[in-house]
Design a protein that fits this description.
This protein is of the alpha+beta class. It has three helices and twelve strands; from the N terminus they run H-H-E-E-E-E-E-E-E-E-E-E-E-E-H. The protein binds manganese (II) ion (MN).
Length: about 160
């Protein structure tokens, strides 16, 4: 009898600890961005509001620049091309990637986009959702990004139609 009481108390104690140690679901789901959002982009190479944090600045050892770019809904790059190509790692939200003459591709968190050298394209957020990506620009010794004209509201509005 005494023994049973001991085990009951032990069981209740374990149950109590197990229950009170449980993290609230919201605390688990809320995550902070891995890299800083950086500064608002103020040049004319973007439409809408976008942010840039350089993570790796180009140098002659790596010939690579890496930046974290965050687009607010509707924001996008101008048309442009990279002499050494580019790789995008989509880290949050959803948006679009389009090569000149091709249909825009939907991109979202977890996607990886490989952009061939000297290929005109743009990337940016969906009209109703933000987008964040890490942009890796390799082989910078072949030349730096060539900026072209903005993606017009008409071009942007044609997505998915
Ligand atoms: Mn690009």
């Amino acid at each position: 009898m005494k023994c049973n009481l001991k085990f009951s108390l032990l069981f209740l104690t374990i149950l109590f600890v197990a229950c009170t140690n449980k993290q609230p679901e919201t605390a688990k789901q809320k995550t902070e961005p891995t890299f800083p959002k950086g500064d608002k982009i103020t040049n004319n190479n973007f439409t809408g509001t976008a942010w840039l944090q350089m993570l790796i600045t180009n140098d002659s050892t790596y010939n690579t620049s890496i930046g974290n770019v965050t687009f607010e809904p509707g924001a996008r790059t101008n048309w442009h091309k990279h002499p050494g190509g580019q790789i995008l790692l989509i880290t949050d939200g959803s948006g679009y990637y389009q090569e000149r003459g091709k249909t825009a591709q939907r991109i979202q968190k977890g996607d990886i986009v490989k952009i061939p050298p000297d290929t005109e394209h743009w990337h940016g957020a969906a009209p109703d959702n933000g987008l964040a990506h890490i942009a890796i620009s390799p082989k910078t010794n072949k030349g730096s990004v060539v900026w072209l004209q903005p993606v017009t509201d008409k071009e942007y509005g044609l997505i998915g139609k």
